[in-house]
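Case study 2.
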Amino acid sequence: MDKKICTLIASAAFIIGCFIIYSGMGNIVPAERSVSVRGLAEKEVDADMAVWKLTFSVGGNDLQYLQKEVVRQTAVVEKFLKDHGLEGGDYSLLAPEINDASMNTWGSTEKRTYTYIAKQSILVRSGKVKAVKAACGDTLDLAGLGVSVSNDYDNKVNYEFNGLNEIKPEMIASATENARLAAEQFARDSGSKVGKIKTASQGLFSIEAAAVGLEEKKNVRVVTTVVYSLKD
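Prediction:
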């Protein structure tokens, strides 16, 4: 092939190649900038349910006496609850537990005060949160009436909040708004503007006591993560 023709073909190919590269560069889209921020929402609410396992013990050496004494003390406790505004629908009697110490083969029998020890529990589960708290605080009155109430961890009042679904929309909106405020602050600092939401994810809701001694007050918390696009 003639040398001039080869040179012309090579030149043409070079020009076409440069044109293609130039055209391609004209279609390159710069990487879209974005910022990921978190928004926090917190709300203090009142517990709407109180659960209390009220347990008392009765000792004796005769089962018939023990049975009568459990019945008597149960009536005393029920009146105590009713005096605090808790009716029959607010609590239920659990099956009593009776320990027969004579069946224990270990230890000296001389150290035994009672042959039988009965534990009776009354499960209080009520929306009358203030009434339950007041009753729990007055259990010393039961001691004055001859009822020995257990005060261990299992018999503490547990306060619950079951109205989460009612406040979820408000809290998610608040968390998202707080996330946008954080994004706008970042955009101002970087000389940009906040664009549309690219992705968003909602964290888990947590419900905790507002403070020690204020377990009937709950602090509800949620964090959302939002990714916004940034524009000049």
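The first helix runs from residue 3 to 26.
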